[in-house]
Amino acid sequence: MKRLLLLSTTTGYQAAEFRKAAERIRTPLVLASDRCHVLEDPWRDGAIPIRLEKPEESAAKIVEFARENPIHGLVALGDPVTLIAALAARELQLPFHPPDAVEVCRNKYLARERFRMAGLPVPWYRRFPAAAPPPAPDVPFPCVLKPLGLSASRGVIRADNAAEFRAAFDRIRALLRRVLGEAAQWIQVESFIPGREVALEGIVTAGRLRVLAIFDKPDPLDGPFFEETIYVTPSRLDPAAQQALVAATEKAVAAVGLRHGPVHAEMRLHKGDVWMLEIAARPIGGLCARALRFADGITLEELILRHALGEAIEDLPREPTASGVMMIPIPRAGILERVDNLEPASGAPGVEGIEITAKRGEKLVPLPEGSSYLGFIFARGDTPEFVEQALRQAHQQLSFSISPALPLI
Known about the structure:
Blueprint: E1 4-8, H1 15-24, E2 29-33, E3 48-49, H2 55-68, E4 73-76, H3 82-92, H4 99-105, H5 108-117, E5 125-129, E6 143-147, E7 157-159, H6 162-180, E8 186-191, E9 196-205, E10 208-216, E11 230-233, H7 239-256, E12 261-270, E13 273-280, H8 300-308, E14 322-328, E15 334-340, H9 342-346, E16 351-356, E17 363-364, E18 375-381, H10 384-397, E19 399-403
Parallel strand pairs: 1-2, 1-4, 2-3
Antiparallel strand pairs: 5-8, 6-7, 6-8, 9-10, 9-12, 11-14, 12-13, 14-18, 15-17, 15-19, 16-18
Helix pairs in contact: 2-3, 5-7
């Protein structure tokens, strides 16, 4: 039987979903994650311990494991592990995205450079050393400040004037020092791109993109922070706009050099053009993949695993039903005490389930410093409008008790 390798961080939501998918297709799955590398198998799951800050060393461990335990394909969940996956795949001669392409996807500055050289519309952009903000920033307002080393809108802040710029710069710099330490070298500044934001989920085979879904994001994302909430598919954009989104993503895939595996792209429509915000060498994050199903009820996780094994997936179209997911935002910082009204919210028309991923007693940190959500709401229905309304109604019924977090003395 063919064996698959799954790379994931210990804090990711997705690994359990991929384990279930592997069981459904009866494929052995080996996990590589950033757990303790000193203790011998601390979680008793036979996982390969990797260190995110040492990608070459971690890839070498995977290659060593594969000498005695052949690996026939690999999947990476989340940006932190994609480089390790790419390096290991290159040594094992397994199809995956090249290391250079993965590096570009993980670096907002390099991505902007590739997009610009490929002729894609790009905003004004410049990176500044994180050590100190420029005393008199010569930037166009409004602008958006982005840490180069983080993802999922973490640390992304809009500034409309010089005072807001300096405040945002200091806030991001403090976050980077806590999270990345000495690796926090740059903060990128871009002119703000107004317009409607959308996402595209796809999978690349030998450099060719197959579109799996285009998601509308009906909530405006204008700042000052950019917390995503609702994704709904199929898109309600007209066919010409959707075709333009696909063409821009194909161009970005080629510009970055992505070759094999899932991709997740974020774009904005502005003045008739498609502005590529970012393209990632990984599938959609969190539990959002539950919003997608394909022929015979196949999940996105199963489709990705089959693709990693070299199976043909072209004849697996997405289900015709409209579907969507809401990432439940954290309303304020504090300690989660309880979630009320789960039962009536779960029973609302169109709602398929509600998953509260935050734990009771957990410290909640909203964006831009935070990196997670309270949970996820899933809905399906005949139309995207119905799905969006179902998600909103379920969220309105939920009640969250959050107590203030006491400062440490």
